[in-house]
Amino acid sequence: MTRVGETTRAGRPVRQRASTPAASGVLVRRWALVLVGIATIVVLFVFASDPGGRSSPPAVPSSGTGTTSTVSQAASTIPAGLPGMPPVLNSNDIYAADRPGALSPVVKNFPSLVYVPNSESDTVSVIDPTTYKVVNTFPVGGLPQHVVPSWDLRTLWVTNDQGNSLTPVDPATGKPGAPVPVEDPYNMYFTPDGRYAIVVAEALKRLDFRDAHTMQLVHSLPVPCEGADHADFSADGTYMIVSCEFSSQMLKVDVAHQQLVGTLTIPGSSPQDVKTSPDGKVFYEADLKANGLYEIDGSSFRVIGFIPTGKGAHGLYVSRDSRYMYVSNRGEGSVSLVDLSSRSVATTWHIPGGGSPDMGGVSADGRVLWLTGRYNSDVYAIDTTSGQLLARIPVGHGPHGLSVYPQPGRYSLGHTGVFR
Question: Which of 47, 149, 193, 356 is buried deepest, with most CB atoms within 10 A?
Fold first, then answer.
C-alpha cells in the first residue's frame, strides 16, 4: 500500500536511492539537495499563487497530523470503464442529460410532486409544487431517511432505516406499495450499469449489493469506518467515493469487483454529501465540521483543496446548466452557490427567519431548489435565480432526504436523485 503524505519536501513519494560508486555519490547527493531546494520553492510559489479562490483545508486543532490516504494495489485493476454503463454524452459534463425539461420518455407523463420522508413521524408527505401544498401523507416503516429514484426511473424507494424495509412508490400515481424487507437501509445508490442497488447499511457498517429489481442480496461489503452515509460515482462509473460521517474518512470502492480499494482520512472532519464535478475531475465532500467543501482528486484519492461555504455544510446539488452547485449549510440556515468553473462561492442565500436546510433536489425546469428543514419540520422552496424563499411548507417531524420527481436524466444513481 502507498501512504499519501509520506513525501519529500518536493512533494514526491519517498523512494529508496539506488547505490552508486563512492566517487560519484557525493556529487549526486549535492545535486539532489540543490534540485530539492528548487522544487520546494516552485511548489510553495504555485500554492501561494493559486488563482482559483480556494483555500487550503482548515487546520485541525491539536491533531498534529494531516490527511492520509491508503490505496491498495487492487486499485490498479479497476477497468477503464464500467461495462454496461450508458455512454457519457459529453466528456466535459457528466450532467449533460439533466438539462431543463429533458425528461425521459419513461417519466414524462408522471405527475410533478415532491416526496418528503419524515424520519420522526414514520410518514411521507407529498407536496404539489405548483400550489406549495401537502396533498397526501402516507405511513411507511420506521425512521424513513431518503426517497430514492430507481436506476430505471420507474420506482421511488423509501429507505426505512429502523423499519428494515424499502417502501416502493409508484411515481405514476404517487401511491405506496407493499414494503420489501431489507436490512438497515439508511441510504441507497445504484451502480451506473443498472445491475445493482447499493444499500448503505450505516449501523451494520456494510455496503450491500442487491439485485436492482428484486432487492435480493448478492454481496455484502464490510466497510472499515463509522457512519457510511453518502456517495457518488466516477465519470466512467468504475469506482465510487463514500463518506463516513463519524470517523472522518472517505472510502474508494471498485464498482465492478465490489471491493474496497482506498481509504482517505481527513482528521477532525465530518463528511456528509458527495458530488462529482461536471468534468469528473473533482469529488466535492460537504463537511459539517469544516463548514465547507473538501475537494478530492478521485484518481490519486487525496485532498487537493477546500472551499469555505457556511456552518454545517451538508447537501450538494448541481444546477441544470452545470455551472453551479447548491450547498445547504444546515447549521446557519443558508445556501451557498458555488461557481464550478472557479471553484469558489459566488453568493450565499440566507433563509428568512433561519432554518435547517438539509437534503433535497432541483425542479425539472431548474427554477426551484427544494430542501427539507431537518430540525424545523418544514420544507423550503427557493428561487434559484434570486435566492428568494418562495414557500415554507409544514410537514412531519424530522424531514430528511426529499425527492423532487420526475427530474431530467437518462438514469438514476440513487440518493435523492443523482441523474446522468
Answer: 149
Query: Cα–Cα distance between 390 and 10 in angstroms, integer?
Result: 52
What CA–CA distance (Å, rounded) separates 7 from 18? 18
**65 pLDDT higher than 50:** no
Which residues is 221 bridged to in the sheet?
Answer: 207
Residues 248-294 pLDDT 10s: 999 999 999 999 999 999 999 999 999 999 999 999 999 999 999 99
Residues in the chain: 420
pLDDT band at 70 (very low <50, low <70, confident <90, very high): confident
50-69 mean pLDDT: 50
d(CA 275, CA 296): 10
On the 0-12 / 13-18 / 19+ scale of CB atoms within 10 A, 63 is exposed
Cβ distance 92 to 279 under 8 Å? yes
How far apart are the C-alpha atoms of 202 and 229, rounded to whole Å?
6
pTM reported for the whole predicted model: 0.85
SS3 sequence, 333-363? CEEEEEECCCCEEEEEEECCCCCCEEEEEEC
The 10s digit of each residue's pLDDT in 345-369 is: 999 999 999 999 999 999 999 999 9
Distant-in-sequence, close-in-space partners of 34: CB < 8 Å, separation ≥ 6: none
Q: Name the nearest CA neighbour of 403 among 150, 191, 196.
A: 150
What CA–CA distance (Å, rounded) separates 283 from 303? 9
What percentage of the chain reaches a pLDDT higher than 70? 82
Tell me the pLDDT tens digit for each residue of 224-245: 999 999 999 999 999 999 999 9
Q: Which three cell numbers stand for residue 30?
A: 549535492
Bridge partner list, 17:
none
User: For residue 406, is the peptide bond before it cis, meaning its omega torsion is within 30 degrees of 0?
Assistant: yes
Whether the Cβ atoms of residue 58 and residue 380 lie closer than 8 Å to each other: no
d(CA 12, CA 201): 38
How far does CA 185 lie from the centroid of its chain?
Answer: 17
Task: Check if the beta carbon of residue 408 is closer than 8 Å to that of residue 320.
Answer: yes
- The position carrying cell 492520509 is 68
Its CATH architecture, for the domain 68-73+91-405, is 7 Propeller (2.130)
372-398: pLDDT as tens digits: 999 999 999 999 999 999 999 999 999
Q: Is 181 exposed, middle or buried (0-12, 13-18, 19+ CB in 10 A)?
A: exposed
